[in-house]
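Run log, item B.
One chain of 305 residues. Sequence copied directly from the ordering sheet:
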Amino acid sequence: MAGWTASDIPSQRGRSSVVTGTGGLGYETALALARAGGEVILAGRNADKGAAAVNQIRSGSGTGDVRFELLDLADLASIRAFGARLRAQRQSLDLLINNAGVMRPPRRRLTADGFELQIGTNHLGHFSLTAHLLPLLRQGHDPRVVSVASIAARHGAIDFDDLQAERRYNPMAGYRQSKLANLMFALELQRRSEAAGWGILSIAAHPGLAHTDLVANGSGPNSLFGVLSYLLGPLLWQSAAQGSLPTLFAATSPNAVGGAYYGPDGFAGFKGLPVLADVVSQARDAHAATRLWDVSKQLTGVTFE
């Protein structure tokens, strides 16, 4: 794993992938997979942005085997429709990268189904999407699900008594909770895949501190977080392309392990090349992960069985 870069991605010819999120990490991940010869379905909620990203990827990869599909992770009906379209179009899927997300909206906002926006989009949306694509993944070749968490998960906690932040909303606490949920979901999905014989590797990754459009879509560039990001960026932050490497390692490397967590090797995991990342104790709590899984099934109405 030492020194692993995008040049180490094995050929993806004959492999199919769904990547959520059309900008930042999602774009860079899709571009790298397309350059390696893979079929890529880029999924997002903005058709114009998606079309532009696809055109850029085609230009930058020299392949036409990439397309956009409409998917709003903040709307369970949109996720159901996306899953139904793909199941009607194809027999299998090799790779799902649960990447898209929202970060720190200053005021409490809701998804189409009444969930707090961060837990609803970042976790429940991807939980539902994975369930809808599970039949295709089970027919895939060396199928993998990669869930993109965050270093913010280190300080996260799942508030089962106020999961939707109805009593008290704190933007950063909500983001940390949603990213911890991503990590817990990845580990629990691996446990369930092994127990049920699904044959799917579930792996988590985080990008460290990477320049993406999350700040613009969250607290905004004029917020304290946005100003500090601008001032300290050259010292602490890395490019989205560099930040996508742990995800790409988890998605493509023959050395990636199911149930593992990968992130940058630099100071505090802020930037660098992919290595195994520490899994915080709250993410290793199997009882809490089972509870989160059951609550998520109840809220989304999906089943993995």
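Observations after the first pass:
- The two ends are 34 Å apart (CA to CA).
- The chain has a mean pLDDT of 93.
Flagged for discussion on Thursday.
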